[in-house]
Structure formats: C-alpha cells, structure tokens
Amino acid sequence: MLGIHMNHTNNDERMDRLPAELATKPFRFYFRRDPKTFGLGVGALFFTNLLDTLTPLAMGLAIDMIRAKNLDGLARSIAAYCALMVGVAFFRYSWRIYFGHFHQAVANDLRNRIFVKLTTLGPSFYQKNPIGKLMSLITNDVNSFRMAIGPGTLVLLDAAFLTLMILPVMLTISVDWTWKTMILLPFVPFLMQRMEKLVHERYRIAQDKLADVSAQSQEIISGIRVIKSYAQESNKRAAFNQISRSYEHAQNRVSNVDSGFEPLMDFAVAAGGAVLLWVCSSDVVRGSITLGEFFMFYQYINKMIWPMSAIGIGLSMVQQGRASFDRVHEVLRTETDIPDEGNVNLTGFESLEIRGLTYQYPAGHAPVLHDIHVTVRAGETIGIVGPVGAGKSTLMQLICRLYPVESGKILVNGHSLETIRLASLRQTVSFVTQDAFLFSDTIAQNVALGLDEFPGAEAVRDVTRAVNIDQEIETLPERFDAYLGERGVNLSGGQKQRLTIARALIRKAPVIILDDSLSAVDGNTEKAIVGALRDALSSRESRRQTTFLVSHRLATLKHADRIVVLSEGRVEAIGPHEHVLSLSPTYRRLHQLQSEEKLSAGFAAAVPEAEAE
Ligand SMILES: Nc1ncnc2c1ncn2[C@@H]1O[C@H](COP(=O)(O)OP(=O)(O)O)[C@@H](O)[C@H]1O
Ligand SMILES: [Mg+2]
Fold this sequence. Notes:
Elements: H1 12-16, H2 20-24, H3 26-33, H4 35-67, H5 74-120, H6 123-128, H7 131-173, H8 175-182, H9 187-222, H10 224-229, H11 233-258, H12 261-286, H13 291-332, E1 351-359, E2 369-377, E3 381-385, H14 392-399, E4 407-412, E5 415-416, H15 422-428, E6 429-432, H16 443-447, H17 457-466, H18 470-474, H19 493-505, E7 511-515, H20 523-540, E8 546-550, H21 554-557, E9 562-567, E10 570-575, H22 577-583, H23 585-603
Parallel strand pairs: 3-8, 3-9, 6-7, 7-8
Antiparallel strand pairs: 1-2, 1-4, 4-5, 9-10
Helix pairs in contact: 4-5, 4-7, 4-13, 5-7, 7-8, 7-13, 8-12, 9-11, 9-13, 12-13, 17-19, 22-23
C-alpha cells in the first residue's frame, strides 16, 4: 500500500566484505543504504508532529467561540479539528510502517552479515568465542542496534521536531508563562536517560538469567536418564529452582525501574498543570489572556513532556546501540585464517604430498605435529594409527585446510593448499569428522547434505547399504523420511557414524577421510563396512578411490596399502602392516594388546560387542 521497496541483498561475497562506512559510521551507512524508506519515515513523522501541534489551536479557537457565545465559525473549527486528527492518524500510521520496515531491514542485513562472516571463519575462531556469546550477538546485539537506529533515532527526531514546533507557539502565547512552566523540564531528559540506561543494564542481566534457565532445563531434560539412574532428581530440582528464582529476581529488578517511566511522565504533566494554574490563572481572570489560550497552553505543556523524556530515552538507546555495534564489529572485522583466495580448480586427485609439516594450535603451547613427510598416490588406502592425542585428527583437519598450515607444505596434485579454491578442495576431499554430527532433518536429507540437488531415493539407499545401515532404517516407520534429533528418532553412536559415512560417500569425491568414524561400531561391522567400501568404491569408477582410514583397530587397518604410525606428533613408521610391525614400537604394542583382547574375547564365547551410545 505504501509502496515500500526493500533492498534485500543476499550475495554472500558482497556480504562478507565490510564496507568502510559501516565500520566507522554504522548509522550513516544504514540511513544511506535505503534513503527512500528512511526519508519517507522522517517526512511522515514531520507531518504528524506539525498537524499534532496545530490541533490544540483549533480546539482553543472553538473554546473561545463558545465563551463568546458566538457559534458562527464553530462548524468550521470542528471540521478543521477533525481534519487535523485524520491527518495525524494517517501520518502516524505511515511513519510507523516506514520506520518499522526500515529498521527491520537493517536488522536483517546486519544479522546476515554476521552469519555470512561466521560461516567463513575457521574452527580456531570458534575455540576463542563461546557459542553463547555468538548467539547473543545475532539476537541481543542486533536487536539493540535495531532499536537504536529505528526507535532511538525516531524518538530523537520526534523530540527535535516537536520542540521546534511547540516552543515558538508557546512563546507567542506568553513568554512569561513559557519560562515559568518550562523551568523544571530540562531535568526530565537527564532523569530519563539515567532510567533508560538502568533498565537496559538490568534487562541484559535478566536475559542472561533466562539463557541460564533454558540451558539448565535443556541439559536436565537431555540428561534425564543419567539423573534418574543416579537418583539426582531432588538435587537437580533444587538447582533449577534456584536459577529460576534468580531469573524472577532479575525481572523484578527490571520492573522496579521500568514501572517508573509512566508515573514519572504523568507526574511531570500534572506538575506542569499545577504550575500553570498557580502562576497563570490570574492572567485569565484579569482578561489579558483568554480561556481558550489558557487551554491551548495547557495542552502544549502536556505535549512538551514527551519530547523532553524522549531526548533522554533516545540518547540512551543510541548509546546502547553503539555499544552493541562495537561488539558486532569486533566479529565482522575478524579476518578468516583460511581465506578462499586460491584460483586452482582441481580436476580429480593425483597425489597428496605433505612436506616438513609442523603444526601448533593457535591456543596451544607446543607443536602437536613435528616435521611430517608423507606422500600418497591416487587409489591408495592409507591407514593412520596412534594413541589418543598423537595428532591424527589434527593431521586430517590440516589436509582439509580447516586450519592454516604455517610451517611446511601440503600439496594436492602439486598445488599448495592455499592456492586451491576451497570449494574445489571440498569437492575433492570428503571428510568424515570424528564427532558424528547430524542435523534435525530427515535421514535422507542428512545423507544428501553435501549435494546441490537431492540425488533421489535410490542413490541414498545405495550408500546406506554400503555402510550397512539400510536394514535398520527400513525398520523405522517413516524409513528414510524419519526425522532425526530433538523431535524425531534418536540414533545410537554407531548408527550416527554410519550415516555420516554415507553422507561422505554419496558425494563420490575422489578422496575420502574417515577420522575414527567407526569407533562406535563393533569390530565385525567395521571390517564389513571397510570391505564393502573398497568394493563399492573401486567398482564405481575406473580410477580407484583414495581413502584415509584413521582407526585404532589394527584388524581393520591390516589391509590398508600403507599404514602411518603417529606417536606424539611424529611419524614413527610408514609402510604395509608387516613393515610397520617390525619398525614401530607403538604399533607393536597396539598389536600385542589387541591380540590379547581377541584371545580373551574368544574365551567369552564371542559375544558381539554392543554398540556404544
Ligand atoms: N583445537 C585444539 N586446540 C589446541 N590443542 C588441540 C586442539 N585439538 C587438539 N589439540 C591437541 O593436539 C593434540 C593432538 O590431538 P588430536 O589431533 O585430536 O589427536 P588424535 O586425533 O590423534 O587423538 C592433543 O594433544 C590435543 O590435546
Ligand atoms: Mg582424533
């Protein structure tokens, strides 16, 4: 109806760049971004104020006509009054719409900028910034900036317009009355600003407490089985009760201040009226001023209370918005440590070469990988083994360029990782991470996650068959359309792992990395899956798949072409099973340990290992 055209940009690359003006003058940036909507809002606000200022005049004139017992012009006066009211209603509605759309679009833009930035940042960023902080950035801080650029700016403009319009009218009626009644008003903005600031501080505390309540209840509900088995219900109840109480308390502290605004404004209006009666009624009796003018003046005093309060409220909102924007800016200006600046597009996979790789985590004290040299040719199956903390996952993550390589080199097909387009690298290497993460979506959608288009039910079934989970899915009532997570099916750890492998397989990438991805399935299933993988993958394309298999089960690795034994961040040996068995003490120890386990398992009448949850 009002012809609003919003400019929604969703271009990721553009959103990832931080415009200089946004960084330094965020308010100006957004005012200029959509000047039409903003300008129309300001215009409508101006006319609302103008007409609003004129209404007491029309009413005052009418009153004087009544007192003069001359009603000739009364109809015209009432008509003017009504016309003004209609105009005020129309323009007030318009500015609400324009401003509303304007600041919601600003919030949308800022939210998306943060989100795009978050998706470009690597894991090292997330280690330094807790999830709660980032969530609060997207919700609280964006909102607080929105309130500043929308309602905050509006309130300040409103105050400025009204003051500039009302004050001259008041002065025309009586300079003497004006200063006598207005003398108290300058305290109002100051008081309001203090109150608004206090409300905001207390509100943030209340928000934090609310976050505690939801985090606690979520944890208690998810952990209900553990709580019950350890009979911790009453302890948890008491703990929850305490957190809930403290939220109640925080909310009350907000109301204690918040409830003061209206009474305070009412009081100021009443005080203004009392002062007016006290100092001015004698002028009316003397006849130097008409009753109509007295009435106008009274109305203008009422109307001045708001702009005075508004200055305080608006200033405080703008301050909070600035503080929030500073926090947002902190993230927006963060440069990713894995910039996508390469331009090499890989066509298939020929070789991977790791040369003199030494790696230390940004947060770490010492290198976790030392001088690694490994070369892998297309089609090889490489087993990677070593004790917990040896650096296996780190090495795999570096191959996928989740962290930057600072010392040494990793080359794919002879190209250093930084020179390869990230999308191309990701298409070439499918990485199944150690923690099996599934989204709250259907099984089929989870498996097809890495594909641009849904590949069809048959393709999904094929890969689930390859990882030995198809039959378990068939027993679910909704089968491949079964929902996972919160409101759906809960899977065991082993089932999750197998689905994440299926997710990697369906992409048919030339290289696949399984980082301990079968740790929660039993040994026989693991062997079966690895065998099936080899067959399925080698038959699918003329060129064989290259596989990195991180596992602690030597039985599975035995058939790898070569095994890399890692120990304390160093390569202890590389080669086929027999070779590393003779060379690596770590491997020998693991081998011995697992042979003994197998023996004792044999005594226990070959009870199959239960799937870990
Ligand atoms: N994000 C991280 N920041 C700092 N240190 C880490 C991080 N991830 C792992 N480490 C450390 O690096 C070492 C190797 O870890 P990891 O590669 O996960 O070993 P593995 O997969 O062989 O069990 C360990 O000492 C671990 O504590
Ligand atoms: Mg690991």
